[in-house]
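Review box. Two proteins, two foldings.
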Amino acid sequence: DVPKVPDSRGDSDGPRRGSLCDRHCAAVNNAQGDLGELGCHLHRPRVPTAVSTPSCWQQHSEEVCESCVVKTTLTAENAVEANKLSNNYKFGFKKWKSHVTARPWEDRSEIVKELYSDLNVIRGSGGSTLTCGNVLYLLLFGWWLSLLYVLVAAVMFITVMGAPYGQLCWDLAGYFLWPFGKVIQKVEVRVPWDSPGVVLGCPMHTLMFPPLPRSPDPIRRVTSRSQRRARAAVWLCLGYPVLALAHGLVCVSAWLLIVLIPVAKLSARAAARVLLLPPERLLIRRLRMTEVPLEGEVILCCYRAANPYYYKYAVDGINIFAVNLLPLVLVTLVLGYVDSPNRLTGSALKFTLALLSIMPLSYYIGMAIASISAQSNFAVGAVVNATFGSITELTFYITALIKGSREGNRCYAEVVKSALTGTLVGCVLFVPGLCMVIGGIRHQEQRFNSRSAGVSSALLSLSVGGVFAPTLFSKVYGKLVCGECHNVTQNPLGRYLCHSCHFDLMDNNGTLYYSHVQPLVYTVSILLPAAYLIGLFFTLKTHTHIYDIHISDCHMPGHHHSAVVHWSRWRALLILLLSTLCMSACADLATEHISPILTNSTISQYFIGVTVLAMVPQLPEIVNGIQFALQNNLSLSIEIGNCIAVQVCMLQIPILVLFTIFYPTNFTLVFSDLHVYASMFSVVLMNYIFMDGKCDYFQGTVLVMVYFILLAVYFFTPSPSGC
């Protein structure tokens, strides 16, 4: 018991309340939320930073003290975001780090604001423009883009009619060679364009040669309207298409490199605005630190070509990596179904593309689930998470089993078992271990809610025991059959050396399997989902204090309380269905082209299953876990791995068993000895590490090292017999 806190008001029941609160604080570990912190609100409530104003906590201090339980206090900009944060702490719900609503602009850091700013702001002092990113732009794009402008300028000068555009291209050649610290402005005309023979003031000089000292508004005679139209037609036919195509290539290339997104914005704005304006309306000049900008709209002003923080960039709430990988899905589907005879590419490339396409689709499915759950009630969220939470893995497993059944190849069933085991071992060892290591670099010691982790660990131990019960039963009562045996001592009663031994369950017309093992498999497949439902009822209904979450309704001044969601419920549902459909197609392509890899590869099929097929679909979850760990919220990092592992045993495997009832396949719930030993050892080690409710990077290193040792064992293990 921790010491009692005396009541400053002198109440008779004050010491009793303080002692109760302290016992609650000692019972539950300090697990921090996304934007809040965990603390026991005693008679002097502690106000988290940027959570509430003094007037707000004074107003609610009595209510907090009356029910003084340890709560994880979270703050959110709106009710939808608060619901999403609360769902992260609910058992069985997908943990999602990204926002499902638009964050208020004033709440964002200056670094993030700069990512979304347009390249049309002139700074007082931009600093030196000689940076590594700017030099990289010069080497990748600047030199050939400038040379192309020079060539187009020569063509326009030859046409005579397009000479003004030739002068513009000559100026832009110097600009795009090194655009940093220079500005392109749109200046206003002084008289209407439709007046014949008018005089317009519009300065334009070359940046490749110093301008002559003259007035900022030189006088230039403008030709008639018909000549201007002819000049524009020549430009749109000969000059603009080539330059627009070049800028499009630069834009796409820079966008895919992510850190060079400012270059993509620069090229897009040049093609959409600069090249479509009359030359007389443009002013191109170099900025000086003490120079006062001229009047006119700033079209382009760039100081840096690269920004390493663009990994945080999002388009309509979608992370930039998921946006860039989306075309890969289209390429995979077109290449896979159009080139089915493998005339253009081989099976290895198609399998790799199909597997990589699963990553962005997993991201879209996860965000759709989080968006629907955050905007719906608890029942709808639970149904969506239970239905689509494991759709990525189940889609691949079912398509692989169907293909194996059609071909009569039992190797597909063994690959599915390896993938199931790899997901279990990876989510128990690698995911929390990696989060501990990365989070431990920033935080010396991290704490988590040991009670909530204990519930997941108990369910995981139960599920692992249930999944491998038929395997242990077959080892005890099955008949050991060996493919080849040699007498070592040349004595009939001596020792025999046997190879390719396995337990045969089909002896005596399969009496053991059909009469004992198969009923046991069906019994386990019924009990495991029932245990999962009991776990949901336990954590979400009867013992909610284990995951006690308090969403603060105190907001900083200026916060917007109205939710501007990225995806509405119907849009999220449509994206969820389309992503699931594309996921099924990619899984079909992956299983279609995995056969040559399994046959011709020298790597063990066990290793392929437990690494590539198991962990690639989990990459978005791993990224979420790392982000939570960096924010000192290791509870959610651990829960991500535990929830996936529990769903593998309690939902995915029973669904596969149910599927084999209606569609007979080679899948049986009997695993190899290596799968059994690796899974059980991983669960025991995880329970030991999570016992005290705190960890550091050393314990995470132990988990990661054990995971790599198991991978080495799988790598040197021979492929299953008959594959």
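Next protein.
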Amino acid sequence: MMLRRGFILFFPQLVGLLVVACCSVSIVYMLACTPKGDNRQLALPRVHSPTAKEGYEVILQEREEQHHNYIISLKKQIAQLKAELQGRSKQLKNMEDQHPDPLDIQLDHSNPEKAQANLLAFLRSQIDKAEVHSGIKLSTEYAAVPFESFTLQKVYQLETGLTRHPEEKPVRKDKRDELIQVIELAVGSLNNPEGDVNAKHRVYTASDFVEAGIYRTEKDKGTLYELTFKGDTKHQFKKIVLFRPFGPVMKVKNENVNVADTLINVIVPLAKRASKFRQFMQNFREMGIQQDGRIHLTVVYFGKEQMNEVKSILENTSKSANFKNFTFIHLNEEFSRGKGLDVGARLWKGSNVVLFFCDVDIYFTAEFLNSCRLNTQPGKKVFYPVLFSQYNPSIIYGHHDSIPSLEQQLIIKKENGFWRDFGFGMTCQYRSDFINIGGFDLDIKGWGGEDVHLYRKYLHSNLIVIRTPVRGLFHLWHEKQCLDELTPEQYKMCMQSKAMNEASHGQLGMLVFKQEIETHLHRQKLSSKKT
């Protein structure tokens, strides 16, 4: 009973102690968790203090300022990142402008302003890429693009070769028009200087051009021109630098071309030369009959000498190759290449056909026959291939034990031959275009001249003349006879052609100095014996 009464008396005290302990723990916890300011610890106001409310408001206000400052800091970082991103985007755009992909430049005609801006940006980038403002590091001395110099009257070329002159008048229309336009633009720039438009300036003309202009073309970028004009005094000059940037590659046409049914009529004028005709028919049989198969042969023969032998060769080829697509025309008169080709073209009775005017000393491949088809179009295009002319095999292979076979000789390199860029005799065109242009000038007799006249007729027409070197057409070497019956102009052309046909410059030099070389070798041999 007494224990129970004592417990009842002790219980309130125990509860009080527990309450005091809990309060102490709460106070310690609140002190520990009170947030700190920048330089001091925030004091917790006492619960019963008259300033407790104000203290809590101070704490809340400082907390709000901390969060506000943190938000401001984040906004600043975001703004910096945006600025950096814009800078990087601008750098990327500049790089794209400096190195655009021509295929990505779309000239959208529905938006002319955008198309013009895209094209202008591309043309400006061409100037940056070319060697205009600064040089470009090159790996070797052979990588340099040389300049050519020009005057009002002449162009001085570096890469001349045997068939060029170290200087020539710019007779080609595109080159002449190009240089005239450049000089006129430079004169206009001098007479309209940037800056003070009211200031008085001397009037420049083309005669002030100092004849020392230079230019060079980088095929993928453009042409750089540097022109010098006379200044106000003897030792003063005006220099104008111009650049013609090349535009982006643009698609012009996308079409299918089917030449499966396109027949070629090969027309060969001939007089005598039966052995050469036999060699020609071997080539014709292999390339024309066996590999191509879409071909007709017309032989126009002059005179009677060796005619039966030529007809026999033709008939034997017809039987052995089962080839019936040929025509033999006999003209009992003096040989005229132009007339033979003209007669052969006009006597064709079939539908419109591609005519290949050929000579008996020509070797062609099946690849060339397709080039002939692909580069001709009735009423549109004619084809004037530049063939590779073979040098005299006896000179080329004189130091060999034997002369290689014909197929092994026909390799395009400077020791073996040259591009016959002065010859216009081998040509492909549709018969309708040949008839409409008026054919050959039949007043020209013998060798030479008729091909140039026909070529000029095509140039004076609205037809496109495709003039390009081809790797599948060869002129086989043969000794050329320049007859006394030729006119002075024809004889001169014949002799020039004869000289060109023999050998390269270096090989002809070895022949000219042959005795000097042999004397030198003999002396060396004697001196080696003495030692």
